[in-house]
Amino acid sequence: MSQSRGGVQVLQVGARHHFAIPRMLQEEKSLHSVVTDTCPGAGAIGRVLKALPQPLLPSVLKKWSTRSPRGVALEKIHTSELSGVYQLLASRGVLRDHWDFDGPIFKQYEKSCMSLDLSGVKVIYAMLFEASPRFIRKAKAQGVKVIYDVYITPTWHHTVNAEREKWPEWEGRERVEREDFERRVTEMIELADILLCPGENVVDGLREFEGFDASKVRVLPYGCGIDFEGRVNEAKPGRVLFAGSANLRKGLPYLAEAAKILRERGREYDFRVAGGVDESIRSLPECEYLHFLGRVARPDMKEEFLSADVMAFPSLAEGCAGVVHESLFAGLPVITTKSAGSVIKNEQGGLIIAEADALALADAIQAVVENRELRDRLAQGALDYRERLSEQTWKDGIMELVNELQEGGAA
Asked: Known EC number(s) (predicted)?
């Protein structure tokens, strides 16, 4: 494949995909820079995080300390650390959550972006919403092309708002403001040269918005951002893993209900929930049979994938859930929904169930755990996805898009 002729600037809050996208671009000598919030070793806070032993850090900072930008030169990383501090405050309930576009989190990130010198930047690869329309207009005025990574279906807020009506005690956060959110999506559609979608579920969501232009759409499933170093899952029977933020969008109430159903059937499986969780959710009586691990460091998370019996991920709205593809890459069978946006097909690496159906989830978990022949067949099917989900395949797809834009293609 021909090498990109210019620099790509990546905009991402957090360590999305474990910094896989900037790492792949750097491998191809195409990375100009990365703009993120907080990163160990980069920026004042990042240098302190890297210097301090992890056991000395308060729990709220341990996640930041594990955001290792493996394979990305620190001098290419620009941090918007005040934006990260505001996110930390939001996670503690001090500020409104991440989706307040007029709040300090987005405003500070925008301010950091606006201060950057765009000399040498030819393409911006921006995660959904993490590039303000004002900054993108500035970049496009200088001839920069824009790829928007639409990492979640843009209609997810409908699902979340509906779930909050059904489960008011599960999440106390305010509703996502529909008009503000949908205006932002419409602006993104207008400004993008390429709308990169990890699955057809995301394309379907975009179609519901004014100005949708199918000619801008490219579909590229995410690969696996974890290196398992050649190891393959060795299951501990009855260990059921859920990975991701423990919230309504990812279907946690239905996982809790499925665990209860199975306990009533006499199946005492180990339901392990790896990811951030509010204490208000952890303490709900409905979650009695869930084992909350909290935020898990990346090396330990690899061990969770490699030792679980089945991944149960009943998500209601995603783009392309990375944890599903990481599970497949590890050889771990997955039970999930179409809304997870994965490449997985029913009985090929896992089982697909209906959304918001705790009984179907319980039945599927029991079938995989109790029927070892089925479980082994699904595990082999999971490994069959490895080439399609490899980082090389993913990188090739991204480089094709970058080169397309630099050769004058797309909008």
From this structure: 2.4.-.-
> Looking at the domain that runs over 239-383, which CATH code has it been given?
3.40.50.2000
Query: What are the backbone dihedrals phi and psi of residue 273, each rounded to the nearest 5 degrees, phi first?
Result: -110, 105
- In the structure encoding, which two tokens stand for residue 125, read together? 């690869």
Domain 7-223+390-406: give its CATH code.
3.40.50.2000
For the chain, the structural domain boundaries read: 7-223+390-406, 239-383
Segments of the chain with pLDDT less than 70: 1-6, 56-64, 91-99, 172-178, 409-411
Classify 93 in phi/psi space as left (phi over 0), alpha (psi -120 to 50) or beta.
left
Burial of 214 from C-beta contacts in 10 A (0-12 / 13-18 / 19+): exposed
Residues 277 and 292 sit within 8 Å (Cβ to Cβ): yes
Measured in whole angstroms, the distance separating CA 390 from the mean position of its chain's CA atoms is: 17
Closest to 335 in 3D by CA, of 354, 320, 319? 354
Q: What is the pLDDT of residues 244-296, one digit of tens each?
A: 989 999 999 999 999 999 999 999 999 999 998 888 899 999 999 999 999 88
**Nearest C-alpha neighbor of 37 from the set 74, 11, 8:** 11
**Beta-bridge mates of residue 35:** 11, 78
